[in-house]
Amino acid sequence: MLHIKSLDEGLEVFKALGSDIRVDIIKLLLKNKGMSMNELAASLNITNGALTSHIKKLEDCGIVSIVNEPAVHGNQKTCMVWLDKILIDLDTTDTHKNIYETEIRIGHYTNFQIHPICGLATAYRFVGEVDDPRYFTHPDRVDADILWFNKGYIEYVIPNFVPAYQKIDQLSICAEIGTKAPETSSSVPAVIDFMLNDTPIGSWRSPGDFADNTSGIFTPDWWYRNWKQYGMLKNITINNNGTFLDGLKISSVSLKDFMLDYKSTIKFRFSIDSEAEHTGGITIFGRNFGNYNQNINIRIHYSPM
């Protein structure tokens, strides 16, 4: 997901999408889950030179990415759409002076209860052995940049350092997530539940496992190619109007139900219900894995009590 926080910030994206042929390129790439430059040019009936110019505009905005794939005669350039959503904030009256931002590393969880398939890894190696939940207590887990499990939950305490005597008006959690690793089929779905201070606030049905022939942009080379490479960037926001996922309301649970302020402990949980119809598990990607090179990003809006 690309989050454009102002019209000025999104100007280059709007220019890139302001072309019928570039919109056709995106449609073709989505339909075919990626195409080579030659295939695209033939489908659009344009020269490779003309196509290169259009692809560059889309690539510069982060909408399209080009990867080198092995072919019969050397390598070929394959184009793919990397974004699943573009979220645009039209109301820019919000100021930034009353916002506290921080991040949480993937391995800095404070509580967990998980079941195999499971595991975690740093940017350089696995932490202990896969499918053994005991290693989620290993000292090296604080350096983990990716973790996964089939059932259960992982919980993080969100740092709350908003100034004294302030109440919290909005809380946003942004993370790259997908279904479980390692060798599951890309067709396996999962319902991932979100909880705030032990209260369910909503869920997301992940469409699949994202373990295909496409490497995650930041996933290290030592990671098995047929294991999960990337997920989707999801933004969970809770305010006084309810809970939203990528801007769409998913529940009526609001901050009014929690009364959070500068002294509050804030616990956020990713959970997989073992009794749910779809239990494809969850993978959480941090910096050095996936397509977004970020940890779990936190954004807290506050105002005087």
Automatic annotation (TrEMBL):
<dbReference type="InterPro" id="IPR011991">
    <property type="entry name" value="ArsR-like_HTH"/>
</dbReference>
<dbReference type="Pfam" id="PF13412">
    <property type="entry name" value="HTH_24"/>
</dbReference>
<dbReference type="GO" id="GO:0003700">
    <property type="term" value="F:DNA-binding transcription factor activity"/>
</dbReference>
<protein>
    <submittedName>
        <fullName>Transcriptional regulator</fullName>
    </submittedName>
</protein>
<feature type="domain" description="HTH arsR-type">
    <location>
        <begin position="12"/>
        <end position="95"/>
    </location>
</feature>
<dbReference type="InterPro" id="IPR036390">
    <property type="entry name" value="WH_DNA-bd_sf"/>
</dbReference>
<dbReference type="InterPro" id="IPR001845">
    <property type="entry name" value="HTH_ArsR_DNA-bd_dom"/>
</dbReference>
<dbReference type="InterPro" id="IPR036388">
    <property type="entry name" value="WH-like_DNA-bd_sf"/>
</dbReference>
